[in-house]
């Protein structure tokens, strides 16, 4: 559980103990947002292994929605907590279980996780590698790598988490048996280059596992077709990043010389939410944040912002609120004749 204690502009205390309240999913525009006129303090659980268990965000600080610049974000601890929250989504857990079944990792194999984040998914898979196996995780964020390293203490196999670039991996050709990447390609300007690098470091006959989101599938239902249509159109717009890469994964791996082995998808759903107790659905972004993104794409005017947010909040109070988002996954192989 994460408790959020916030002061409003008038100095009054706002308090909620809902699980990961107002954890903004790094998914939309990737642009900075003001925290508003108050102050927000984030308290992480004592057993998280973080050195920063308390973070105070000043009135003038901003929080960028996205993982392009985690280490430079004034609310880094919020981004890290968000990753933990999304890792517990039912859709995330379902896809990771499917991945583990498809990969059937064996003792002594070598696994690389590109965009490893906090290392939780890779460390779970590492249990199948045994003491003779090897796990390597690469991420662009020093902060995320530090957390991953702290969580790797109990791993049985050899583990190395390091800072690196997905499109220029500092790893030898043909070294790994399996390479995975989860919800990372959507943040990379050239996902084809990243997947080509994965192919380079895989041995002939090796496997790649890719999991990613398609934000064009995001849907909200509050009984207002016009509102839902505006959201749908805004999400179809890829703004400076391949946010809809998830559904294109099969074509992506084929274009990089892989043979598609298996594919699947899973939809994360939000049903029921009380906006008077929590400013956002569990583990998700606030409706004010969503409104700002619609304004940016021209689907909403600034004067319509408050009405947009109020409509959604009232629908949630009346138990007429639902949202959904689909993630996709593929397993693909390097032909044994490669290289």
Q: What is the CATH top level name of the domain at 90-268 and 326-333?
A: Alpha Beta
- Estimate the mean pLDDT confidence: 81
- What is the rounded Rg? 20 Å
Question: What's the shape?
Answer: elongated
Q: Report the structural category.
A: alpha/beta
Strand content: 25-35%
Helical proportion, percent range: 25-40%
Tell me the CATH architecture of the domain at 90-268 and 326-333.
Answer: 3-Layer(aba) Sandwich
What is the assigned CATH homologous superfamily of the domain at 90-268 and 326-333? Vaccinia Virus protein VP39
* Low-confidence runs: 1-67
Question: What is the ordering of alpha helices and beta strands?
Answer: EEEEEEHHEHEHEEHEHHEHHE
Count of individual beta strands? 13
Main beta-sheet annotation: 7 strands, mixed
């Amino acid at each position: 559980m994460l408790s959020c204690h916030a002061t409003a502009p008038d100095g009054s205390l706002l308090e909620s103990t809902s699980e990961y309240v107002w954890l903004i999913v790094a998914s939309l525009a990737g642009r900075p947002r003001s925290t508003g006129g108050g102050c927000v303090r984030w308290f992480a659980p004592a057993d998280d292994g973080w050195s920063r268990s308390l973070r105070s965000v000043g009135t003038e600080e901003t929080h960028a929605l996205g993982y392009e610049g985690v280490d430079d974000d004034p609310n880094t601890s919020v981004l890290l907590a968000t990753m933990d929250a999304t890792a517990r989504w039912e859709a995330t857990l379902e896809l990771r279980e499917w991945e583990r079944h498809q990969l059937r990792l064996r003792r002594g194999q070598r696994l690389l996780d590109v965009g490893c984040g906090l290392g939780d998914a890779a460390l779970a898979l590492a249990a199948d590698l045994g003491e003779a196996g090897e796990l390597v995780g690469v991420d662009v964020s020093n902060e995320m790598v530090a957390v991953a390293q702290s969580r790797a203490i109990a791993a049985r196999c050899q583990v190395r988490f390091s800072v690196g670039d997905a499109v220029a991996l500092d790893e030898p050709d043909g070294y790994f048996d399996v390479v995975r990447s989860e919800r990372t390609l959507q943040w990379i300007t050239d996902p084809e280059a990243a997947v080509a690098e994965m192919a380079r470091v895989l041995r002939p006959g090796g496997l790649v596992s890719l999991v990613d989101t398609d934000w064009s599938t995001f849907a909200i239902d509050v009984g207002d077709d016009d509102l839902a249509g505006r959201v749908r159109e805004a999400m179809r717009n890829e703004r400076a990043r391949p946010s809809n890469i998830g559904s294109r994964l099969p074509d992506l791996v084929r274009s990089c010389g892989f043979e598609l082995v298996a594919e699947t998808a899973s939809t994360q759903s939000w049903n029921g939410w009380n906006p008077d107790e929590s400013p956002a659905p569990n583990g998700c972004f606030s409706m004010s944040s969503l409104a700002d993104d619609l304004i940016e794409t021209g689907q909403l005017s600034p004067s319509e912002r408050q009405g947009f947010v109020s409509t959604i909040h009232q629908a949630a109070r009346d138990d007429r609120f639902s949202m959904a988002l689909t993630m996709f996954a593929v397993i693909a192989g390097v032909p044994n004749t490669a290289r």
